[in-house]
Amino acid sequence: MVVRLGTLYRRSVRRLDQFHLRCLRKIVGIKWQDKVTNTDVLQICRITGIEAFLLQAQLRWVGHVMRMPDDHIPKQVFCGQLAVGTRPQCGPVRRYKDSLKENMKKCEMQPSTLSIDSQDRSNWRSHCQEAVKQFEDARVAVLQHKRAVRKGEAQPTSNLGAWPCDSCSRICHSRIGLHSHQLTH
Hints:
2% strand, 2 domains, extended, mainly alpha, two-stranded antiparallel ribbon
């Protein structure tokens, strides 16, 4: 069995987030019957989601590695390239660099300026904290908007894939959803 450390797939982050929220609900004493949303649980606990924790830790560690002298092994491994070899064509295994680049883009940071930006430790930390905070705020806003659309309190942002019901004008997001909705009328 091969264990790859450092690279998290979407499904792993989702499972960690479920566990994190389940623990927070137990600590605060919120039962499932109370029907409290995940975003409300995070606000009650005054804490961010697990994905923001992971982003923060990854960005801080990469800044630490990039500030190392060039002769240190972690920096050589992180910045090195293989001279010979290929990756499999059918769905290559995600590398740490791939997930880092994706996460930096999520936080609206430029991966190309990583080596320059990370040299000043205090500036890098504050920049990472601000970027992760913006990411978390945007994530919560999207979740709240999705919930409002689901509850009928807001309109979808685009009409692509919107299927209105003829009898009650409810907007469904898929044709099969519209079909099952019309079965109730």
